Amino acid sequence: MPLSPPVPRQLRHTRAITVEAYARDDGLWDLDARISDVKVRDIQLASGVREGGKPVHNLKLRVTIDREMTIVDAEAASDSVPYPGFCDTIGPAYKKLIGLSLMKHFRLHLKDRLSGVLGCTHLTELAQVLPTAAIQAYANDVFQTRDGVDEDDSPDRPFQIDRCHALRADGPAVATFYPRWALKVASG
Q: Can you say how many angstroms the Cα of residue 96 is from the centroid of all Cα atoms in its chain?
């Protein structure tokens, strides 16, 4: 279902976030994430005028993860920033991500290591999308979701059950698509 039609309006700002996942030849995976902020008109920054259409932020973060979703390497680059010579010096701090698991309290540990003046607000915000991006990348590649499998004899429940509203173990989607794993709701 689409959003409702908007009232008359004018675009002023675009924030874009992308994450691309790459399976490497050595068995590891790279998650290349990017965040950009672009204004449609010229703006005055403390560092000078930024022309409309040119990024205020163009920041990149790459984390390399193993099959258990533990970060084994990390790097950050700041190609366009509002304070050149200052914002773009924080990249090495993102090595602090090494050793963190994307599946075990990642966002909490990220905050402990890189929030506020310990990191770049925008790079740290970008890092927060990495766990769900990794899960999407690994689905049916590293771990099997077993979607469309008629005869599922695995002893393990599919990973995605109880990970979102639609796939509640006691809900109709699981009863329809994963009947073996559906919880029956007691009627009273």
A: 18
Helix (H, G, I), strand (E, B) or coil at 118: helix
- Given a contact cutoff of 8 angstroms between Cβ atoms, the answer to whether 110 and 125 are in contact is no
Task: Flag whether 6 is in a domain.
Answer: no
- Model pLDDT for residues 152-179, shown as the tens digit of each residue: 677 888 888 998 999 999 999 999 988 8
Number of domains within the chain: 2
Full residue range of the structural domain in which residue 73 is found:
13-138
Based on the domain organization, do 133 and 150 belong to the same domain? no
> Do 117 and 150 reside in the same domain of the chain?
no
- 29-80 per-position pLDDT tens digit: 999 999 999 999 999 999 999 999 999 999 999 999 999 999 999 999 999 9
Select from 72, 71, 60 the least CA-distant residue to 19. 60
Q: Is 148 within 8 Å of 176 (Cβ atoms)? A: no
Phi and psi angles of residue 112, each rounded to the nearest 5 degrees, phi first: -60, -40
